[in-house]
Amino acid sequence: VAAGALPYLGFGVAWVISAATAGQVVASRAWGESSAQFLFLQAIMYWGLKVLIYSILVLVALLALLMCVAYVFALVAGSTSAFKKSASGAFTRESVADMFRLPRTAVLGYVADVAFFLLMVAGLLVAMLSPHVEGSISQGEMVASVIIDVALFGMHATACFVIIPALVLSVWRGGQADRKVPSQFC
């Protein structure tokens, strides 16, 4: 049960990070970067990043531990060659392809994210090419700031409302299909 909930925890944390970052863009425009709202959203984003990184590290450690325990069991049973066959046979070309197959909605969300990323690059180019005015912000830098904020908001809003929900739904449907298939090990 806990292993089945782990992907959803990761998606939830990624959603919170994206929502907090999109909210940061709005809060910085509305109240400034020293406002309580902006600092609160920044703290949520950093907390989410820490949880996500620690979760990934724990998952990798658990997978390594599981492989070591399985190898020791195979060693005690005296069939390490059977272990190697079953371990390598678990990853077929089709199973790996299924792991990386994305739903169409998520792919369209990634395409939109690429467009927003290119918009952000354009904003950075405008900022770099605008003449610097001593003691104030030039009009080109202000325009670039707005372009970059729109791009950041668009990227994270797309992640929140298109990409992450599509991936969660895809994982959930895959889990439902796996429950209907009888297990080989029972």
UniProtKB/TrEMBL annotation:
* This protein's name: Uncharacterized protein
List where the protein spans the membrane. Answer: 51-76, 107-130, 150-172
Provide this UniProt record's keywords sorted from A to Z: Membrane, Transmembrane, Transmembrane helix
- Does Transmembrane helix appear among the keywords? yes
